[in-house]
Amino acid sequence: MSLPSFLLEILVCPECHSALTESGQGEEHELRCTGETCGLVYPVREGIPVLLVDEARRPS
């Protein structure tokens, strides 16, 4: 399930305040920080973005 475009326009990374982009599908749906120095990946659970730095992972 994709997030509404208006939501992606206002959501930012809580760590560095850069824009977020969607990636993955279904259980692997996530939001990726576009910041060059940050790059955290936030999960989306049941259609709700979990924008907690403690829940994010560093990209591999």
Automatic annotation (TrEMBL):
Domain of life: Bacteria
InterPro entries: Trm112-like
One Pfam family of this chain: Trm112p
Family: Belongs to the UPF0434 family.
Name under which the protein is recorded: UPF0434 protein GCM10010430_42090
Organism: Kitasatospora cystarginea
Lineage summary: Bacteria, Bacillati, Actinomycetota, Actinomycetes, Kitasatosporales
